[in-house]
Design brief:
Distance between the termini: 21 Å
Order of helices and strands: HHEHHEEEEHEH
Largest sheet: 3 strands, antiparallel
Oligomer: single chain
Number of strands: 6
CATH class of the largest domain: Mainly Alpha
Number of domains: 2
Radius of gyration: 17 Å
Structural class: alpha+beta
Strand order of the largest sheet: 1-3-2
CATH superfamily of the largest domain: Winged helix-like DNA-binding domain superfamily/Winged helix DNA-binding domain
CATH topology of the largest domain: Arc Repressor Mutant, subunit A
CATH architecture of the largest domain: Orthogonal Bundle
Shape: globular
């Protein structure tokens, strides 16, 4: 699912009290244009025109996650993936092709009934994680 984000990165960094470095702006742009969550290695590969070291990239990802500019996602692959936080896809899930490992956004949330049930039982600040796996159309046809 292709989607785009209309972000003013300079304003976002200003609002969070962060310096506007070339690396920070490039990371936000890369994540805003991505069709699925990216690993640090995938982000690093896309940073062709920016001078950086891996430690600075990881610090940037950590800072952005702490400031809620991006979300870190564990899809059970042994690495953290990152995606931009946006109003359009505020809370969503993912489906991962079990063959080619393509990741797509599922743009809605199923467990609202679960949350209502648990809230009724007195639970507070309920969160959840739910991802799907299957075989995408391209892999299924081959």
């Amino acid at each position: 699912m292709k989607h785009s984000h209309d972000h003013n990165f300079l304003e976002q960094l200003d609002n969070q009290g962060l310096k506007k470095t070339e690396l920070r702006l490039a990371v936000l742009k890369i994540l805003s244009e991505a069709n699925s969550p990216l690993s640090a290695d995938e982000i690093s590969q896309k940073l062709k025109k920016v001078s950086f070291d891996r430690a600075t990239l990881f610090r940037t990802l950590k800072t952005f996650t702490e400031k809620h500019l991006i979300s870190g996602i564990d899809l059970g692959e042994g690495c953290q993936r990152y995606e931009i936080n946006c109003v359009t896809h505020h809370h969503h899930h993912h489906i991962i092709c079990s063959q080619c490992k393509k990741i797509e956004i599922v743009p809605f949330c199923i467990p609202n009934e679960f949350k209502e049930f648990l809230t009724g039982r007195g639970y507070q600040e309920i969160t959840h994680r739910m991802d799907f796996s299957g075989i995408c159309v391209k892999c299924y046809k081959s």
